[in-house]
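Issue: ligand-bound run for zinc ion - logging full I/O for the record.

Environment: standard queue, default settings, no custom constraints.

Inputs:
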Amino acid sequence: MAGGQITNVVGVAFRMKIFTAYLAHETNSFSPIPTNLRSFEELGVYRTGMGPPDEDIALLKGSALFYKEAMRRGDEAVVGLSAHAQPSRPTKRADYETLRSWLLEDLRLAKDVDIVLLFMHGSMMAEGYDDCESDILGCVRDIVGDEVPVGLLLDLHCNVTSQMLEKASFVTACKEYPHTDFEERAVELYDLCVRLREKKIQPKVGFARAPMLGLFQTAQPPMRDFVDHIMAREKDPGILSITLAHGFPWSDFKDAGAGVIVITDNDQSLADTRAAEICEEFFALRERGQARLYSVEEAVSAALANEEGAVVIADMSDNPGGGAASDSTFLLKELLKRGADNAAVAYVWDPAAVEIAFAAGEGARLPLRIGGKISQFSGQPVDLDVEVVALRTDAMQPHIADGEPTALGRTALVSSNGVEIILNDVRQQPFSAEGLVAAGLDPWSKKILVLKSSHHFYANFHEKAAKIIYCDAPGLLNGDAKKRPYKKITRPIWPLDDITQPNVTERAEAS
Ligand SMILES: [Zn+2]
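Outputs:
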């Protein structure tokens, strides 16, 4: 298979030749974890020509969504750079430039593509590049020109910029948090790009910035109803796509915050008015659209008070999926202090403790210093006499975005005072009980499960959990925006400033 180019139906003329690439990083400006090429390589990097995409679909990650749709349609697909890293600090400049050069080299090799479909996060920052998405789009445009449709699919935790909207033909994002709908959104974006290529539509984009910082869970009301309402309105005459960009509050970036993108078929006025209207509705949900947060003490008290089944405590502020180290000890300490005797904590990223547990072996009993190592946001380490219950090197979990298996690294399940802790050496948030089981834990026999995740766990835990408690411990992703040392963010923005209206006109012009 030359150059990674794929043909799927011998002798049938291809309708379209697409190029797809995936480069994703959710950048947390305040994270203590550096981001370099190794951070991407650790999770696997695919490039054109490395091998037939079919044979290692998990390595394609986000590109797989567009690749699979191309195969379904009988189109030709060239898969370029596909890489992501766990959320962390801005990528080192030279390493970002290397990744960018790989993506562009793959695009140049593809030659004469009809459509470019990119999947990026929407809040990627690198040293010297505050808006990597726009930077990549600009370079892609320089290669393919203005006539080739370029579709950009984002995570809804994106900080949308006017430059992204100018350079891409379409910018859309997933609608669900947890992000369970990337496949549908990829198919829709693909279809829009095909229709534009065939000159059947003329997209006009309206954008209204909603100056607010928060995490808006769409599985529960009122956000559930709002998203359903948005999807119904996408069927209105003239509307091609509506996207709620929730923003990523931990990127210290001038355009950080929420917004609404409305794309119409050749009706600028409809795009602008509808975006402004929906933006005001979204902004009105800024408080009610977020989960109730419990303190560490309240969370453990509420969990201990539960009688039947397992209570999940989301340790939101230590979510590695938002740039935290995943080694904080605030909840672990509280569980031990309160004598919680049938609890588990996952995943505590502690490569040194993993190393020691592996050296000791399964069944060993030894003193182990756990967590609290990376920064002030990790709290203090906890010294425990533990039993090494299970050691695994092959534990995986299905990724929330595409269901493909994701490695948890080496895992060590240790137990002390009735609390079981899964230690690992690849930072990952728990997406599914499968990963916990793969590490040797029996999750549903526990009374309390502390999961280092903000909300993605929800999709796979909510049906069996007796109760879900969102805990706002004093870690990196603590919900109090006023404590974050922002330098670049555009003010006013809620809740840093006490504003009650989005002022859509002024904000749209300012961007
Ligand atoms: Zn997200």
